[in-house]
Design brief:
Largest sheet: 5 strands, antiparallel
Oligomer: single chain
Distance between the termini: 71 Å
Radius of gyration: 21 Å
Length: about 160
Amino acid sequence: MKTKNTLFIAVTLICLTLSCTPKTDSDTKKSEVTKTVNTFYQSFEEKDINLMSDVMAHDDSMLSFGTALFDIHKSWTEWEENHIAQFKAFDRATINSTNLNVYLSQNGNVAWFADITNWELVIENETIEINNVRITGVLEKRDNVWKIVQIHASVPQG
């Protein structure tokens, strides 16, 4: 009887320990993804294409959409060229995340996010506010580093 109780307690403890481990791992991965997304935002604010490059995948098959009709990028090269031009077009940018949600795939190597952001741009001493910019993206863990492999931004109408 004592052996059965000891076995039951041991199995219960093992199950409890294992059930807690994925949550911690999941929280850590979500935190890493959040940091990557915030670094992406920071790259805009600092107008730093190298910082942006650090968090983006450099795939030739990358497809991303921006807020303008013509704002389609079909590779990292197109994305980079467009954003270097964008950085030259504004004097300062501030991006405030208001509702960042991060999700993980079952295997934990793919993540996606959805955020609502408020932007403040200064162009030739004029401040332009664009609120409720929706940003979604997909990240993949490559060589133990999260990389943005797809991103989309849109501004709601009305």
